[in-house]
Design brief:
The complex is a heterodimer. By secondary structure, chain A is an alpha/beta fold. Chain A has a single domain, classed as 3-Layer(aba) Sandwich (Rossmann fold), CATH 3.40.50. Chain A is about 35% helix and about 30% strand. Chain B folds into 2 domains: about 190 residues, no CATH class; about 180 residues, no CATH class. Chain B is about 55% helix and about 20% strand. The radius of gyration of chain B is 33 Å and the shape is elongated. Classes of the chains: A alpha/beta, B alpha+beta. The interface between A and B is medium-sized, with 26 and 23 residues.
């Protein structure tokens, strides 16, 4: 079942009088439970695509459906409510609020939708990413890897339809990187969470099942990885 | 997003920059406390003026001749008749003249009042030494005088005047009593006066044209029964019109103490509002301080706004967050300002000012008004920064450092 359907998506930025095309007719379908990486050089439009998928940005033209619902044309409030309920974001620079401790940062994701048991769910989400012992630490008191895990817990806690990660390992050393990728893989495998991540590191992309390469605002390659073969192979047994 | 969560969020962000919040608060605190303190001074003036006018006596009507009319003792007697004027309780006729009062070498120009026995009670004069003028004194046209407290000081200093002889316009009078001080009031100093029997005043001191043995009066003081001042006014007017056969213009005026109180209350209420408005300016300056700080805060927290938007915060969520922060600051400032204002007003109470004392009165309506105004100022000056915050594009906001 497809969770994301994109057809002929275009995005043009206006810089003064100059029009800068960023996405030139992207067609993409992502199925529920997939773990997809989007690769490309900086400026290739991969982050813009992720932002549009995440309802943070709107396309100039084209169609985008999330879980069968047409997204383009929705107003700001409708987009905000979609972000509140269906989208989990993980950023390269974690984007935690420095004033709040880990649990409160995770709770932030539940602040803008109707939720009950907020504190309990936040704690469970932190447990799930292995930070059960760090509830009351503030971001400054956590390592980069730990901060990114808090961010993953924050994305996870609202049971999103899709988890979007923009260079989630970009600021981390290799050990933390593989930890984070391990967590994302586990969430994908165990909970069937759809994960889309943007990266420019090939190693990171290899952790996913499907690699989409981007260049000049267009998809130039869309292929399954060895990883997915293994999974399918394992699944077949 | 729930209000509790909003307030909690606002509270924690306000608390995150203590020094700045305190300085912003200070603007509002000073504004609110100035409003409270100055308005309490205005209210105090209002109340003390009312109290002083009431010290003249209560429920009083002052009936005076006008348009060349003449009021006489016969008029006064008619007014005191309970058949003609059932709402009038007591009547005190009064004949005023100026007099030179001399004791030994000491001579003074002192207002002289020819009165009857009832005058002291109606006009709230209390005898501190000796006695007031008796009915027998009035009948006998006796040369007796009662001194106001200031008149007594001026003439006798610290000596006891009772039984002494003074000369009034050259005639010898025996001092039979001294009155307690009433203090200065808006009708002048009631203490610098001398009182003699009205008959003596007319027949011996003033010696005006004789009205067939009747005495012309300068004022008739009429005291209405409690709550009947309006009907007493009507009765007096009707009765005197009949007696004077008035066909066109009245040859007398009836004014009530209430009209004097009302006129002065209006003046002091204007003063109170004026003082409040002056203080209100500082409140507005405080509000601009809030706006300034909120604008800085929006710029500083652009990233936070981006994060919150990415988490699903709508424009309204962000708008409410920043407005609530502004209102919270101004409301906390308002509460602290009320506290400081009350303290300041207590300190001001009783301080000497231009010969009198400042008196202050704190009332609930001023306090509530100050709180509401300060919250409204937070709201007003918070709206612009909050709407700037809410309109930020999530992507741009997230990219900011």
């Amino acid at each position: 079942m497809s969770i994301i359907e994109i057809s002929n998506l275009r995005k043009v930025y206006k810089l003064g009088s100059v029009q800068v095309p960023v996405l030139n007719g992207v067609n993409l379908t992502i199925n529920k439970g997939e773990m997809v990486s989007i690769m490309g050089a900086s400026g290739s439009g991969k982050s813009t695509l992720l932002n549009i998928i995440g309802c943070l940005d709107v396309p100039t033209s084209g169609e985008y459906c999330l879980e069968g619902e047409r997204i383009n044309g929705l107003n700001d409030d409708a987009l905000a409510s979609l972000r509140a309920s269906r989208i989990g974001f993980v950023f390269q620079n974690y984007n935690l609020l420095p004033r709040l401790n880990a649990v409160s940062n995770v709770e932030l994701a539940l602040l803008y939708k109707k939720s009950s048991d907020v504190r309990k769910r936040a704690m469970e989400a932190l447990d799930a990413v292995g930070l059960g012992h760090r509830y009351s630490h503030k971001p400054m008191e956590l390592s980069g890897g730990e901060q990114q895990r808090v961010a993953i817990a924050r994305a996870l806690v609202k049971n999103p339809a899709v988890l979007l990660a923009d260079e989630p390992t970009g600021a981390l050393d290799s050990r933390s990187s593989s930890e984070i990728m391990g967590i994302l893989q586990k969430l994908n495998r165990d909970k069937g969470l759809t994960v889309i991540l943007v990266t420019h590191e090939h190693d990171v992309a290899l952790h996913t099942q499907r690699m989409i390469s981007f260049s000049d605002g267009e998809i130039v390659n869309d292929s399954l990885t060895k990883n997915s073969m293994n999974l399918e192979h394992n699944g077949g047994q | 997003m729930k209000l509790v969560a909003l307030v909690h969020t606002a509270w924690s962000s306000i608390g995150s920059n203590r020094l700045r919040t305190t300085l912003t608060l200070l603007g509002i605190i000073i504004g609110v406390s100035a409003v409270i303190a100055l308005m309490s001074v205005g209210r105090g003036a209002q109340e003390s003026i009312t109290a002083r006018i009431e010290s003249l006596g209560t429920n009083l009507l002052f009936i005076r001749p006008s348009n060349d009319g003449v009021l006489t003792m016969a008029d006064a007697r008619a007014l005191s008749n309970s058949v003609f004027a059932p709402s009038i309780k007591n009547v005190a006729p009064e004949l005023q003249a100026s007099a030179v009062v001399v004791f030994g070498e000491n001579g003074r120009n002192i207002p002289l009042f020819g009165v009857t026995t009832g005058f002291a009670r109606i006009r709230n004069f209390i005898v501190s030494q000796g006695e007031f003028i008796s009915p027998a004194h009035v009948i006998g046209k006796n040369n007796v005088v009662v001194l106001g407290s200031r008149a007594k000081e001026n003439l006798f200093g610290t000596r006891t005047p009772l039984g002494s002889e003074v000369l009034i316009n050259g005639l010898p009078f025996t001092v039979i009593g001294v009155l307690e001080s009433k203090g200065a009031n808006t009708l002048g100093n009631e203490d610098n006066r001398v009182f003699i029997p009205i008959s003596t005043a007319h027949f011996k001191v003033v010696r005006n044209a004789d009205l067939n043995g009747d005495i012309p009066l300068t004022t008739i003081n009429a005291q209405a029964k409690t709550g009947l001042i309006e009907s007493a006014n009507k009765e007096a007017t009707t009765l005197l019109r009949l007696r004077h056969k008035v066909t066109e213009e009245d040859d007398f005026t009836v004014s009530s103490q209430q009209t004097v109180i009302d006129a002065l209350a209006e003046t002091t209420a204007t003063l109170t509002v004026f003082l409040g408005a002056v203080a209100g300016i500082s409140l507005i300056v405080g509000g601009i301080g809030i706006m300034n700080i909120m604008l800085v805060s929006v710029t500083e927290r652009t990233k936070e706004i981006g994060i919150r938007k990415a988490m699903g915060a709508s424009r309204r969520d962000i708008l409410s967050q920043f407005i609530i922060e502004a209102v919270l600051i101004s409301l906390v400032g308002g509460v602290l300002g009320v506290g400081l204002g009350v303290i300041a007003s207590n300190l001001l109470d009783g301080l000497p000012l231009a010969g009198t004392q400042i008196s202050t009165v704190i009332s609930a309506d001023i306090t509530i008004l100050a709180l509401v105004v300060s919250a409204a100022i937070g709201l007003f000056f918070g709206i612009y920064p909050a709407s700037r915050a809410s309109k930020l594009h999530p992507i741009d906001a997230l990219r900011s450092v």
